[in-house]
Amino acid sequence: MYTEKIIKPPSGYLTLVLFLVLLAGGIFALTQESFFAGSAILVFDFILVLPGLIIVNPNESRVLTLFGKYVGTVKSDGFFWVNPLTAKKKLSLRARNLNGQQLKVNDKMGNPIEIAAVIVWQVKETAKATFSVENYLQYVNIQSEAAVRHLANSFAYDNLEDESADITLKDGADKVNMLLEEELNERLSRAGIEVIEARISHLAYAQEIASAMLQRQQAAAVIAARRLIVEGAVGMVEMALEKLSQKGIIELDEERKAAMVSNLLVVLCGDKHVQPVVNTGTLYN
C-alpha cells in the first residue's frame, strides 16, 4: 500500500529564465556558425530544462514517478520545476457528485424495492488513487453500488414489515445516511477516496408490489384511525355516565346504561351521520 508523499519543488520562474537564456545562447551560437555548441545547448534546453516545467492549478495535483518509482505528489498550486525525466500524472482534488442509478434489490424482509443514492466524494490520497486500484473512478462507482445494495439488505423498508425494527429505510433517514457514509468511507479508503456526504435520493417499493403495499398502508392507517376513534368514544361515554351520575339528572339501571352506551358508541364511532329518533313515550316504552 502506497503512502502519499507531498513534495514542494522549486519555483519554475527561475528555470524559465534559464530556459530563455539558454535558448538565446543556442541561437546566438548557431548564428556564429558554432553548430555543435549551439545544437548541444538547444538539445539540453529542450530536453532537460523545458520538460521539467509544470503548472498546478488550484485543487489539482501532479503525481510524479521516476523510472517506475513513486517520487511524490505536488499539491501546491503554482508554477514549478521538477525532474524532467519524471512522469507527471494530473489528478483532480475537486469534490465530485455521483448520482447513482436506481437499483432493484430486496430489503431485509425480502421485499423488492428501488433505491438510489447521491454521493459527494473527492480524492484524499493521490498515491492510493493512482497505484492501489486500476481505475479509481470505476472503483468508486462499483463500490458505491455494492454499499447501497448492502444497506438495503440490512434494513426493512418500514415498520409494517418489522415492527420491532429501530431503524428502517423509510423512517431512519439521518441514521441510514450516516451508516451509508461510514460504509462508503471504509470501502473507498483503499483507493484514497474520502466521502464527504452520502444520502438516499430515491426509495420506493418495486412496481410489482407497489399497489399491494399501498393498500396495506391504507388499511393500516384506517385501523389506526378506528382505534383512536374507539378510544375517544369510550372515554366520552364514560365521562357522560359519570356526569349524569354526579349531577343526579337521571337514574339508569344496568339495562338502560347498556342501551345508552350502545347508542352513544354507534353515534360516535359511525362513519356516517346518524338520524335522531324522538321518543314520545316514557323511558321504558
Structure overview:
Residues 51-217 form the Band domain. By secondary structure, the chain is of the alpha+beta class. The chain has helices spanning 12-31, 35-49, 126-131, 136-154, 173-188, 207-247, 254-269, and strands at residues 53-56, 60-66, 69-74, 78-81, 87-92, 96-99, 103-106, 112-123, 193-205. It has 7 helices and 9 strands. It is rod-shaped, with a radius of gyration of 38 Å. A hairpin with a 2-residue loop joins strand 2 and strand 3.
Name the features.
285 residues, alpha+beta, four-stranded antiparallel β-sheet, three-stranded antiparallel β-sheet, 7 helices, 21% strand, Band_7/SPFH_dom_sf, Band_7
List the helices and strands and how they pair.
Elements: H1 12-31, H2 35-49, E1 53-56, E2 60-66, E3 69-74, E4 78-81, E5 87-92, E6 96-99, E7 103-106, E8 112-123, H3 126-131, H4 136-154, H5 173-188, E9 193-205, H6 207-247, H7 254-269
How many strands, which pairing sense, and closed or not: the largest β-sheet? 4 strands, antiparallel
* Gyration radius, in Å: 38 Å
- Oligomeric status of the shown chains? single chain
* Overall geometric form: rod-shaped
Distance between the termini: 96 Å
Question: Uncertain segments of ≥5 residues (pLDDT<50)?
Answer: none
Beta percentage is 15-25%
Q: Quick check: average pLDDT?
A: 83
Domain Band: 51-217
Transmembrane segments: 12-30, 36-56
Organism: Pedobacter albus
Subcellular location: Membrane
